[in-house]
Design goal:
This is Aminoacetone oxidase family FAD-binding enzyme. The protein is of the alpha+beta class. It folds into two domains: about 1-185 and about 350-405, FAD/NAD(P)-binding domain; about 190-340, no CATH class. The chain has eleven helices and 21 strands. The strands form six sheets. The protein has a six-stranded antiparallel β-barrel. A five-stranded parallel sheet has the order 7-2-1-11-20, sandwiched between helices. Strands 3-6-5 form a three-stranded antiparallel sheet. The radius of gyration is 25 Å and the shape is elongated. About 50% of the residues are buried.
């Protein structure tokens, strides 16, 4: 049996290992367009590769077909991936619920995957960009400059995020040509660009904040954590968690506003009370001095400028309406988002091959006999925290295992 795996990332290599273990006589070949496999893994988790999480549930995932991910995760939770990692020699460590290799080096997982593939006899064909796949009878014909033949094909090309690392979006075209449908694909887990440089004076600041995303006609989404301010936008994990909703809204030509609360641990009324108490206690403090121990200096200057208040003003000189304006700026500052930083800066994509066309327990296509689809190519995207790699690895494991089994039927329901 000849198994062709298109894409040598997390899903593709996991599929290759799983297939060879399930059927050692199968001829498993991975076609990778870059000069080496698993390059994108090296960039995950800031180079540490956060590959799963203590809590793996569907609430951490997005997609147009929630039933798919719920069914899939019920059968493929954290323990499935931990067992696989152990089987390739990866020793994990847990930090605040995030799983990393003990060395905290993403290269450890890349090397373990590649080493196991070669040990099992998987053929790795690097610098092989697959242009087209079609089926003649029961056989797949693969055009990668040269023509290759296979009995089963696993599409694991990744999406379109970080194309420099290999995910150029070509997998969507391959899936479409074979009869699958693809929902609108947009960047996710990506920095956002603001309309105007509203916080440019605070560029480089990292501070704890709450961000609430307001999208016309949609529910609001909220995230709390470290905010990173750039000269033309917003970044940080807490912004990444909201970015897929903003990205989808902008694609639909809807207005997206992020409301920032720079003192999220204090209720609005408490901030007002504390501010006035500080003025009474320290009437000789400047306005900037009142906030000195609460917020970074550059951020204070930016917020005072936006509120129209000079930083040198004595706090006890402020009029009531000026206090109200200032605290509203600190607690509920609206920022209009004009764009994301695009696929080049995104960690994953939102959207993809419709999961209603794929069996969630076997990862096999419901439209093409012998075709399997795994990883980011599908319309499944998770939050930061190891969720996307968890799905990539486990969907690859299942696709590889099922692809080498001889008896196959196409089931249109799940």
């Amino acid at each position: 049996m000849r198994i062709a795996i298109i894409g040598g990332g997390a899903a593709g290599l996991a599929a290759a290992i799983s297939a060879k273990r399930e059927n050692s006589s199968a001829l498993v070949t991975v076609y990778e367009r870059k000069e080496d496999v698993a390059k994108k893994i090296l960039a995950t988790g800031n180079g540490r590769c956060n590959f799963t999480n203590e809590e793996i549930t569907s609430s951490f995932y997005n997609g147009d077909d929630p039933a798919f991910i719920e069914t899939f995760l019920a059968a493929n939770g954290r323990d499935v991936l931990l067992e696989f990692m152990d089987s390739i020699g990866v020793v994990p460590v847990v930090k605040e619920g995030y799983y990393y290799p003990r060395s905290e080096q993403a290269a450890a997982i890349k090397d373990a995957l590649k080493r196991m593939c070669l040990h099992l006899g998987v053929t790795l064909k690097n610098n092989n960009s697959v242009k087209r796949i079609h089926k003649e009878g029961a056989e797949f014909i693969i055009d990668a400059g040269k023509v290759f033949h296979a009995d089963r094909v696993i599409l694991a090309t990744g999406g379109q995020a970080a194309p420099v690392l290999g995910s150029d979006g070509s997998g969507y075209g391959l899936a479409t040509e074979m009869g699958h449908h693809v929902s609108c694909v947009t960047p996710a887990l990506v920095p956002l660009l603001t309309s105007g440089k509203v916080l440019a004076k605070a560029s480089g600041v990292r501070t704890r904040a709450r961000a609430t995303c307001h999208i016309a006609g949609c529910e609001n989404y909220t995230s709390v954590g470290e905010l990173q301010i750039t000269d033309n936008g917003l970044s940080g994990i807490m912004i990444f968690q909201l970015s897929r909703h903003v990205s989808k809204a902008l694609e639909a030509k809807k207005r997206a506003i992020i409301e920032l609360d720079f003192l999220p641990e204090y209720p609005d009324e408490e901030v007002m009370i504390r501010f006035k108490e500080q003025i009474k206690r320290f009437p000789y403090f400047s306005v900037a001095g009142i906030f000195n121990s609460l917020l970074p200096e550059k951020l204070i200057q930016a917020l005072l400028s936006l509120a129209g208040i000079k930083k040198s003003r004595l706090a006890n000189e402020l009029r009531e309406e000026e206090i109200t304006t200032l605290l509203r700026t600190v607690k509920a500052m609206p920022v209009t988002i004009r764009a994301t930083k695009g696929f080049a800066s995104a960690q994953v994509c939102a959207g993809g091959v419709l999961t209603t066309e794929v069996d969630p327990l076997e990862m096999k296509s419901k439209r093409v006999d012998g075709l399997y689809i795994a990883g980011e190519l599908l319309d499944v995207d998770g939050l930061c925290g190891g969720y996307n790699l968890h799905f990539a690895f486990t969907s690859g494991i299942i696709a590889g295992r099922m692809a080498v089994r001889k008896d196959e039927t196409i089931d249109s329901n799940y």
